[in-house]
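The data layer described in this paper is built around a simple, fixed record for each protein. Such a record has a labelled line for the sequence and another for the backbone structure tokens. For reference, a complete record is included directly beneath this paragraph.
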Amino acid sequence: MAFIRVLTLFLAPATLARAFSPRTVTSRVPITALHAKKIAIGVVGPGLVGGELLQQIEATRPLLEQQGLEVVVAAISELKKDSDGKLQPWMICAETSISKSQFADALLDESESSGQPGDFVQMADHLKSCADHAVMFDTTASEIVSNCYSGWLAKGVHVVTPNKKVGSGDVKRYQECRDAMAATGAQWGDETTVGAGLPILRTLRTDLLATGDRIETIEGIFSGTLSYIFNSFEPGMKFSDVIIDAKSKGFTEPDPRDDLSGTDVARKVTILARQCGMDIALEDVPVESLVPEPLRDWNCGEGQVLADAFVEEMAAFDDDKTKLMADADAAGQVLRYVGVVDVANQKVSVELKTYPKTHPFAGTQWADNICAFNTERYDPQPLVVQGPGAGAAVTAAGIYADFLKIAAIASSPNK
């Protein structure tokens, strides 16, 4: 079994070789003495992941300086309560770098001078006015923010994001982003949309497709939540109790159906399929939901906590999953919730499947993500990428790694 640990971003072919050339990767000569570059960055939605990203940037400033990079956090956007207590788009912009603590103070400051109404077009223009190279980080899951990508890229502003909405959403919007990249040379760092900090897209695009390998199938466990649930689920256990356990450890969304529906996995499958040249829309992906049919449109009673009430309702359906687990165990197998991209047959799916206990998917731990690439070269043993696929720290690190690759391109002598 081949295991690999590498990183990537969504690069145009012309820049791919430069970004990952041996000279770029192995050089130990500080860039500072050769061609220092100033890069202005903006962060949209500095919550758990975005806040961790800001912290990682602040903690590594000496390393950035050694590479000749002057990174200025020139704009941060968040929702802020107005005088009526309603949340409104808001941003703070500056020509000098904004620290995480300065942003937090401004967000709490009720004076008008603490910031300005949020405007993503103005935000991008401000970044361009601060430096020749500008990067927007979208750490939200917002459709509204996603709609700005093509405009940002058309301005030559790079985009780095874990937001899956564009990569898996409307095909027209997706193509507009690709066209804007081709026109301006702006880059779209999207590694974290599939595996958080895991190098799944890098492996696919750079190590396999760019080297001429032919993809047969991609199969993986792409949800940290569902990975934990089925790693924990054992014969004799109630499925609803496993959901309660996952909820207590912070794995589930406030509405567990968001995890159990399989929609998030379907988005990742769509992204992977498109990278393989498949013309796939999210609606084309057959998804086996783990939410029983009667509970898909169910609503909890007034005053109830939705997650708690939902788990109580799920208990009535425990027997179905208990039998599936018992049957799998008796056959020497495990249950795993997976996404599949079958390039050879031009099919995709998201489903609950059984695997032998000797299979790599049976060896996942805690909330591991794992992805197996079966290709013309990697046959019969697939190339496997495995590791933590969720969490603020690893996701922020993956975003930061995408940024550093863009920074490397910006720091090249001809830029």
User: Anything to note?
Assistant: Residues 1-34 have pLDDT under 50 and may be disordered. The first strand starts at residue 2 and ends at 3.
